[in-house]
């Protein structure tokens, strides 16, 4: 297993969280906490960059849902960027690909 790092930054579309490593039951709460610590503004996007995500279990999926719920409550939309094939498959199998805005890369974000 690879440890998890979450790096906060800013994009023209809004704040971003880059998730690197394994998102699983041992650390999913860290993603929730990172989203709660992010300054979210109505009408903006919270970009979650998953390009370096190596593994995601059901706890990770639950954390992504919690991040989305937190953002929606703040009037912000969540965009998942560069979702790895295995995680995209999980999102598709659970129907969450219809709930999340999923983009191939950051160049397709508004404001870019």
From TrEMBL:
Domain STAS: 4-112
InterPro entries: Anti-sigma_ant (IPR003658), STAS_dom (IPR002645), STAS_dom_sf (IPR036513)
Pfam families: STAS
Family: Belongs to the anti-sigma-factor antagonist family.
PANTHER family noted in UniProt: ANTI-SIGMA FACTOR ANTAGONIST TM_1081-RELATED (PTHR33495:SF2), ANTI-SIGMA FACTOR ANTAGONIST TM_1081-RELATED-RELATED (PTHR33495)
The protein's name: Anti-sigma factor antagonist
Organism: Streptomyces prasinosporus
């Amino acid at each position: 297993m690879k440890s998890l790092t979450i790096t906060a930054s800013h994009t023209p579309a809004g704040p971003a969280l880059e998730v690197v490593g394994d998102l699983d039951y041992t650390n999913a709460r860290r993603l929730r906490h990172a989203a709660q610590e992010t300054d979210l503004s109505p009408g903006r996007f919270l970009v979650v960059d998953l390009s370096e995500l190596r593994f995601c279990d059901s706890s990770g999926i639950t954390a992504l849902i919690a991040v989305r719920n937190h953002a929606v409550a703040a009037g912000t939309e969540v965009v998942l960027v560069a979702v790895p094939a295995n995680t995209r498959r999980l999102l598709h199998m659970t129907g969450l690909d219809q709930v999340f805005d999923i983009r191939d890369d950051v160049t397709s974000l508004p404001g870019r």
